[in-house]
Structures are given as C-alpha cells and as structure tokens.
Hints:
Blueprint: E1 5-11, H1 18-32, E2 36-42, H2 49-59, E3 64-69, H3 75-85, E4 90-93, H4 105-113, E5 118-123, H5 130-146, E6 159-162, H6 163-171, H7 179-186, E7 190-195, H8 209-223, H9 226-255, H10 263-296, E8 303-307
Parallel strand pairs: 1-2, 1-4, 2-3, 5-7
Antiparallel strand pairs: 3-8, 4-6, 5-6
Helix pairs in contact: 3-6, 6-7, 9-10
This protein binds uridine-5'-diphosphate and magnesium ion (MG).
Amino acid sequence: MRPYLSVVIPVYNEEDNLRPLFARLTAVLDDIGKSYEIVFTNDGSTDRSGAILRELHETRPDQVRVIDFNGNFGQHMAIMAAFEYVRGEVVVTLDADLQNPPEDIPRLLAAIDAGHDVVGGYRKDRQDTWFRRSASRLINAIRARITHIEMRDQGCMLRAYRRNVVDNIATSGEVSTFIPALAYSFAARPTEIEVRHAPRAAGRSKYRIYDLLRLNFDLMTGFSLVPLQVFTMLGFAVSFFSALLVIYLTLQRIFIGPEVQGVFTLFGIMYFLVGLGIFGLGIIGEYIGRIYLEVRKRPRFVIREILQSADDD
Ligand code: UDP
Ligand code: MG
C-alpha cells in the first residue's frame, strides 16, 4: 500500500543523532495521522549508523526503509537514490543532524495542501558558523543573478515535494546535482516558508570547505551557462582594449621611436591577461567535467542492500 507521506533522510556518520531524531520524527508523524514511511539512505557511514538504522527498521519494518550505499556518494545522491524508491504522494527531505526540526513538517504539508508542488524552507536564525553564513549569502546572491532559480535559502534541506516533481528529479539522470535547484526547475507552483534551525545536535558537519566549493561549482555550472557567457564577453572586451593598446604602441613607435621604459607595466598587463586566460580555461573545464561525467554513464551510486519489509515491491 502506498503511504501518503515519505520522509527522506540522508545519513553519513550520524550515530548519536539517529535515535533522538527518530523519536521526535515519529512523534510528529504519528500525530499528523496520515500513513507514512521514512526512507533513510546510509551514505557509506563508517560509524555505528548502519547498525542503528537496521534496528530502527526492525522496530517498524513497515514504515522504515533503509537504502544502504556501497560507499560515500554525497548528500544529494543519497536523496536522489531515495527519490527513486519513495512511494508517498508527498515527499519531505530532512537532515539527520536535527538542525531541521521535524516539528516543522506539518507546516510544509499545509503548504502542499494549499496547492503548491514544491515547498522550500528558509532558515530563521541560521545556526552555523559566521563563515558558512557569509559564504552562503554570497553564493546565494551570485546564483540568484545567473540562474532563473528563485530561492531564498538554497542550502536548506527541509523541503516538501509533490510526487510528480520527485519523479522528474529521479529520472533526470544527472550525475552531480543540487536537488532543491533541480526541483525548482520542475516546479509549477513553488513557495517558501520560514523554518527553524538548530545547531547540530551531535557530531560535526560533513562538509569541508572543498566540498562546499565543489557543490557550488556544480550548482553554478549545472544550472546556468552564464559563467561561460560572461567569460566570452570579458574576452571580447579585453581583445578590444588590447587592440587599442597595440595601435597606440605602433603609432608611438613610428612617430616617436622605440621605447624601453614601461617594460614592467607591460609585464603587469601580460600577467593579468595570462591569469584571465587560465581562469577561462578553468570555467570551460568545469563544463567539460560535467559533460565527461554524464557521457561516462557510470552509475550515480551503488546500493549494497535495501532493508524493507518482505511484501514491499
Ligand atoms: N550527508 C550525507 N552524505 C555526505 C555528507 C552529508 O548523507 O557525504 C548528510 C548528513 O548525514 C546530514 C546531511 O547530509 O544528514 C547534512 O549534512 P551536514 O549536517 O554535515 O551539513 P551542514 O548542515 O553542515 O550543511
Ligand atoms: Mg547539518
């Protein structure tokens, strides 16, 4: 039987958070009074998370399903895998570290009932480090300018989706992607509501600076061609001014004679242009990298085992 609601939770080394999360989540969901399932993806945890998830599955075999990855494929792929298996009419995503309070889920569902197909959350009083918050603000602003995605808080994972949006995401086949942004591109009537945010209950953030950078490159290049186009424009402008400089220098040489001064100015300009060229190659590289990943057609994630009750399909 298909449940009304599926709650999707990616898990990577969250051994101390899983039981408190499960207790709070089931309390909220039981209260709503509609049928539900909870789908955990164990994203290659190396701590006791896998064993705890197995226990949780055994306590409520009909409601708790666990997708066990073969390794660490990242938060967004963990959600993607769950999206391929969820059976609910409405799907809610949530972090495992209790930064998103499960108690806010009924408000997401109310917005879905009001006719929206994607309900995003934006975090009130975001409880992350100053560095993370400022970096997010900057990236959010850039993204807002170069993509058509309107989102107040792209990093918030407490979100609700209608079935057809989830199906579109699951079949999109993208290798490295950003689920909320992808959802937005399939949404007909998206909306956003304010959700609460708590400090991480236990353990530490799984994202290091490098992961955050990568994730944001994926977001920019996966949803916009503007970086390439801006670079082309820049190339035009630079060529134009370089041409002016060459004409000027030629005329100077003919009418005034050769010059030796200003060598360092010229070096300065040279280094600037070389730097610009390398930057441009990098941007092109980002897109080629994405093309390469798509063309290679390797599986996006590998599932070792799925824990679900026997009568499930
Ligand atoms: N996560 C995951 N795979 C990863 C990294 C994170 O499944 O490679 C999960 C993690 O267990 C958590 C959620 O994604 O449930 C958000 O991660 P985290 O809290 O570390 O990110 P932050 O809140 O610092 O952005
Ligand atoms: Mg977190």
